[in-house]
Every structure is written in structure tokens, then in C-alpha cells.
Amino acid sequence: xxxxxxxxxxxxxxxxxxxxxxxxxxxxxxxxxxxxxxxxxxxxxxxxxxxxxxxxxxxxxxxxxxxxxxxxxxxxxxxxxxxxxxxxxxxxxxxxxxxxxxxxxxxxxxxxxxxxx
Amino acid sequence: xxxxxxxxxxxxxxxxxxxxxxxxxxxxxxxxxxxxxxxxxxxxxxxxxxxxxxxxxxxxxxxxxxxxxxxxxxxxxxxxxxxxxxxxxxxxxxxxxxxxxxxxxxxxxxxxxx
Lengths: 117, 114
Known about the structure:
The structure holds two protein chains of two kinds.
Chain A: E1 3-7, E2 10-13, E3 19-26, E4 32-38, E5 44-52, E6 55-58, E7 64-70, E8 73-78, E9 87-94, E10 107-108, E11 112-116
Parallel strand pairs in A: 2-11
Antiparallel strand pairs in A: 1-3, 3-8, 4-5, 4-9, 5-6, 7-8, 9-10, 9-11
Chain B: E1 5-7, E2 10-14, E3 19-24, E4 31-37, E5 44-49, E6 55-58, E7 61-65, E8 71-76, E9 85-92, E10 102-104, E11 108-113
Parallel strand pairs in B: 2-11
Antiparallel strand pairs in B: 1-3, 3-8, 4-5, 4-9, 6-7, 7-8, 9-10, 9-11
């Protein structure tokens, strides 16, 4: 069966410090991978998505970046955190959307709570 | 830009009551998904509806996709405290660049009091 794991679960960082959140998926190949941010426990904002190794699309201009060094590994980074980067970050995967009939359900990781002070 | 509006935003009811949550849009979706999220955890998929007018049941939960594929509803019968959580709907577009991602509503925060 497929599993997704992201870490760390909780992070408290000072303004201006770097960030690295990591996400790995097991039990599937060539997944679509996503990073979302959720503010105040409500709707999800798509930050980045990837359809393959080294392929990253950004949805929202910001000081965050994403990388996909391996097929099932997705990393969210920042060189210098801002106060506004605080939030709940969620990694997710879906089956590759190019497959016929695929409705692309998302499977989420446990989430990472980031507090920037 | 495709938008999904969920209502109500907040709902607090007593155990045993029935409730309905709505998800509406002016856009047509190829499919619509419902997720439930508990505090501090990632959302978990409940159901996907694909066909206009489709009704799916998951124990005490009934999901309906509108005939025009622009809206959906979630009805819970005899709510229990374990149903407490954030309910999110998400629609997937048809073609072009919008098809790779889901458009999420802002969610309905349900609290079922014992």
C-alpha cells in the first residue's frame, strides 16, 4: 500500500532563518506531488506541484521554493523565513493525471506546523 | 479562476441531529471530492463524485453531485461527536492547465456536541 510521510511535524524558527520540509512517498511510482499551505485551519492554498523529477511549477510568488531530487521525494525550502510564512504545510500525492479516467484524488501527509518568530 | 464556496462556514450541533453542508460554484467540474480533516492532521478523502446527479452513501453520510456538475452537498444523518472536523470540497477542472490541480473550498468546520 502507498504511504506518505512528511517531517518535521513541528518547527519553530526565527525570522531570516532557512527552512527545509521534506516529504517522501512509498508504494507508488511517478506520482504527482504537491505542497499546500493551510492558514487558520481553513482552505488549502496550492504552493507548488510536480509531475516528475526536477519539474516544479509554482502557483504563488513568494520566498519559498520546492525541489524534487528523486521520484518520490519532495522538498519545500526557504533561504530566509518571513513572519508570514507561519502556517500548516501539507504535502500530498496523486496518481499521475495523464492516466485515462483518473480523477486525481489527493493523499496527504501528516502536516508540518511552522511558527516563525 | 474556478471558485468553490462552502456553506455554512461553521456549524455546531447536538449529537443525533441531521445536517447538510453545501459546496457551490459557477464553474463546471469533471469531478468533485470531499475530504475531512481533524485538527493537526492532513485531510482524508471521503468520496469522489463524477457523474451529474450522482448520489453516494458512506454509512451515515450522503453525497450528491448537482446535475450541472457545479455544486455538491454532504448530508449527515444522526451526527456523532466523531463526525467533528473540517469538511472540505474540492473540484477538478476539465482541460488545459487547470486540470492538474484541485480547487478547494474554504471548508465547513463542524462541531458535534455530546
